Amino acid sequence: MPGARRFTAAVWCVIAAAVTSAAIVVLSAVTGVPGGERLLGGAYLDATRKSNLPTWWSTALLTTSAAGLAAACLVSLASRARDAVMWAVGAVVLLVMSLVEHTAVHARLALLLGSTGPLDGLLLVMGGAALGVMIPVAVGLGGSAGALVGAAVVLLVLSAVGGTFLVQRVSDRTPVGSVEHVAVTHAAELGENVGALLVLAAAMSAIAVDRVGGGLRVSGRRPPSGAGHLPPARRAAAVLVGVTAALSAASLVAVLSAPSLGPGFHEMRVLLDVLVEDNLPTWWSSTLLLLAALAHLVVAAVAHAAAAPAAFSWVVTALLLAALSLDDHTALHERTEVLARRVVDTGSYPFAWLVPGLLVGAAVAAAVVRLAVRTRGRPRVLLVLGIGTLLTCALGLEFAQGLLMQAGAEGLAFALLYHLEELGENIAALVLIAAAASALTVGLSGAAVHLGYIASAGFQERHRGRHRAVPARGHPRR
Fold first, then answer.
1. Helix, strand, or coil (residue 242)
2. CA-to-CA distance for 404 and 424, rounded, in angstroms?
3. Sign for the pseudo-dihedral over CA of 228, 233, 238, 241
């Protein structure tokens, strides 16, 4: 399916260029204007500020590239190829890069060390570590995929580390927000975007996708060494659930322990508190929603290959989940607070954004329910359960938090409530991922992975028997 790949690559590149260009043009236009950061979405497009669009896009590209490497790893396992470990290591490194991009954890570590002095050294160490791991990975992969990975990691490190140093030097000569400062900052972001896209291209170059028997056949381009195996899905589910629970528990412990640990513990709490933006739990929440979007997009592709009528609905939910990931990262809903107060007078109640939030929530619910109507069985149940849990937590529990804040009761009950909200939203994202997984059959067909669409009972009956994938030995087909 080379045409679809070229189209997808073109879309990714156009979006990356558009985000960078819009940021440079808008920020250059408002430079020197009083309150200019509030004009034309300037603050939202500024990569030097917290919770901004370019950083989310870079994080999303890195996460998507990590998912692409993980897919290449699964295909390698199916054909017993020796490069499966290389793909897995690369996926972990890209995921760590995504975390660093979102949280600026290197800057937080420098503050924990007592000053900003160690920041340059930490950047060099982290960049050197990335090169030290990924260059051997590129060599081990070999061929065009290895060349792309090698070029990508060099570009990523140069853009991230070199870009940071260059921005610091420019800041010494010109004020922050100047045209030169804006151009250098966002050029570095674009370099990271291109590097992430090269990694994704490397993963896709190692995979062949064909439409076979009412589904998709995914195989490696290298000659197989024999029939391999696929790890059971419950392992991935256990990891996702375990990390979600661990982060919620760590945040709650950090919040409840903070008063007794003193100001020196402040940065650690900021890094772990689920109420704070641009930290570890926020990255995880945004990543789960993005993974849900990618999972729904995969189901859409398989459903399209099977000529299932719900294919477009899966695309819609994928786009909505990506938008929710963007909102989680950039706190887009909170940016509507001022506008909402111009329309609705909520008095001393702090969350006027809930009014437009209800309208957006209704639209999201309608799209998911429309998809649920077109599915059957477990996918339908999980879709309804997932979106119901997500909206209940995001709107209902948020409303309850606003009541506590209005009453000045921001103690233990408030802390427990917002932890319950964030945990519920993460669980909802996991349920929506499970809904996508339950819509597919995944099995081995020779040395390839076969994906079939089974979410529609009527459709399944019409196409039963066209293709029956052979499940991996020891792992029954889901």
1. helix
2. 19
3. positive
Q: How far apart are CA 330 and CA 95, in angstroms?
A: 19
Residues 277 and 399 grouped into a single domain: yes
- Residues 149, 252, single domain; the answer is no
* Phi, psi dihedrals of residue 441, rounded to the nearest 5°: -105, 135
Which tokens in the block code for residue 313? 């609905």
If you compute the radius of gyration of the chain from its CA atoms, what whole number of angstroms results? 23
Q: Which residues of 234-265 are buried (b: 16+ CB within 10 A; e: fewer)?
A: eeeeeebeeebeebbebbbebbeebeeeeeee
CB distance 478 to 453 below 8 Å: no
Q: 459: number of CA atoms within 13 Å, CB side?
A: 22
| Number of residues assigned to the chain | 478
CA 353 to chain centre: 24
pLDDT in tens, 33-60: 655 555 446 678 888 787 889 999 999 9
At 275-288, the pLDDT tens digits run 888 889 999 999 99
Helix axes 84-103, 280-305, angle to 10 degrees: 130
User: Are the C-beta atoms of 240 and 430 separated by less than 8 Å?
Assistant: yes
Residues whose CB falls within 8 Å of the CB of residue 359, separated by 6 or more in sequence, listed in order: none
Q: Are residues 187 and 290 in the same domain?
A: no
Least Cα distance to 290 among 260, 322, 266, 336 occurs for: 322
For residues 255 and 166, state if they share a domain: no
**In degrees to the nearest 10, what's the CA dihedral of 99, 100, 101, 103?**
80
Residues 256 and 316 in one domain: yes
CA atoms of 360 and 327, how far apart (whole Å): 12
pTM for the whole thing? 0.90
220 lies in some domain: no
Overall number of domains in the chain: 2
Asked if 277 and 161 sit in the same domain, the reply is: no
Per-residue pLDDT of 342-356, as tens digits, reads 888 888 899 999 999
Stated as kind and residue range, the H or E segment containing 208 is strand 207-212
Task: Supply the range of the domain harboring residue 34.
Answer: 1-205
**Is 213 within the bounds of a domain?**
no
Q: Round to whole Å and give the CA distance between 130 and 97.
A: 9
Which run of H or E residues covers position 288? helix 280-305
Q: Among 205, 224, 255, give the residue marking a domain's end.
A: 205
Q: Decide: 218 and 448 in contact? Cβ < 8 Å.
A: yes
